[in-house]
Amino acid sequence: MEREIALLFTVLYIPQKSFIICIIIIIVVPLAVLSAPILHDSDPGSIYLKQSEGLRDAIRLSAIECQYQFRTERWNCSLEGRSSLLKIEFGNKLRFKETAFLFAISSAGLTHSLARACSSGRMERCTCDESPDLQNREAWQWGGCGDNLKYSIKFLKHFLGQRKASKDLRARVDMHNTNAGLKTTCKCHGVSGSCAVRTCWKQLSSFHETGHLLKLKYEAAVKVHSVTNDATGETELISPKRHSYTLKNHVPRTTDLVYIEDSPSFCRPSKYSPGTAGRTCSKETNCESMCCGQGYNTQSLLVTKACHCQVQWCCYVECQQCSQREEIYTCKH
Fold first, then answer.
1. Is the pLDDT of residue 278 over 90?
2. DSSP-derived secondary structure for 320-333
3. Using CA atoms, how far apart are residues 172 and 237, in angstroms rounded to an integer?
4. What Pfam family does this protein match (any one) (predicted)?
């Protein structure tokens, strides 16, 4: 029987000197792939070992974007201390809305980084076009060299889709949320803005835009349970009936994020999060929610912040440091 193991990728991001943000992403890979002594370009398993740079960029990109999107939430995409939020609780037992977002943002990050790496020539086995006769050569299309979205999606589904045939509910949820993180952008062409010609452009949008869209999907995530289709024998995800006037069984759309368990409050330190005590909040917008009704402290401090920032490829931001006095609000212990 084929065995599987989990590869853990850890990324550290330090937005301020006062704390460290850490995220762990679990990817399940067949053990036989890693135990093979020699891998050739023609071997399907070789893709796991040849794309390390693209994977590293993708994981860092996903971690930073997750932390940015949840910066004002009780759970801020952090794993401080010895907490094993994804590895133990989210990864193996439960599937919360936060897990759904992590799967989607991770798949989107992989797609984004690998597509850009292909078009920039940083990966050997793909270029702007996946045609065999264009391998390792520049291939220019109308409007320039587009990102190789086709290759990156193919890689993603092969890399993260190992459990897609499983009837296990968690596996179905994982695969559903992975696919929800993929996006194809199309554009219309014609006189006066008419859509006489519609082409799908292989150029990825800003990853902040992707993160924002996935955050909106997170906020509208659908709780599901599994049922067996008597006709096909396959497991399907069904949203339970919410009101008497709605349909009894609602099948979530492929673009929805889905989850199984309701999320904990994340207010106090637990195996799920470090809690919100000491977290910085905004008095006008989120202190009441962030601090879980426990109140907050006010301090007037000279704060040094990053300013005049410029984004560098792929996932790095270079900034200057500026000082100013501000009122800082932190949740009480």
1. yes
2. EEEEEEEEEEEE--
3. 7
4. wnt
Q: In the chain, which ranges are E strands?
A: 4-16, 19-30, 185-189, 197-201, 222-223, 225-228, 235-238, 258-259, 280-281, 296-312, 316-331
Q: Which residues contact 109 (CB under 8 A, 6 or more apart)?
A: 58, 59, 61, 62, 65, 207
User: Is 224 within 8 Å of 258 (Cβ atoms)?
Assistant: yes
Q: Quickly list H helices, 145-206.
A: 149-160, 169-180
Contact status, residue 258 vs residue 100, Cβ threshold 8 Å? yes
Q: How far apart are CA 124 and CA 139, in angstroms?
A: 14
Q: Could you tell me which residues are beta bridge partners of residue 140? A: none
* CA-closest candidate to residue 116, choices 314, 264, 252, 333: 314
Q: Between 86 and 71, name the one with better pLDDT.
A: 71
**Cβ-contact 48, 159 below 8 angstroms:** yes
Q: Cβ–Cβ contacts within 10 Å for residue 64, how many? A: 23
Instruction: Give pLDDT tens digits for 75-113.
Output: 988 755 434 444 434 444 447 889 888 888 888 888 777
Query: What radius of gyration do the chain's Cα atoms show?
Result: 22
Asked if 103 and 177 touch (Cβ cutoff 8 Å), the reply is yes
Cβ-defined contacts of 141-146 (< 8 Å, 24+) = 141/202, 143/201, 145/119, 146/119, 146/201, 146/202, 146/203
Q: Is the dihedral of CA 142, 145, 151, 153 positive or negative?
A: negative
125 within 8 A of 41, measured Cβ to Cβ: yes
Closest to 61 measured CA to CA, from 114, 123, 109: 109
Cβ proximity of 134 and 127 under 8 Å? yes
Residues 251 and 226 sit within 8 Å (Cβ to Cβ): no
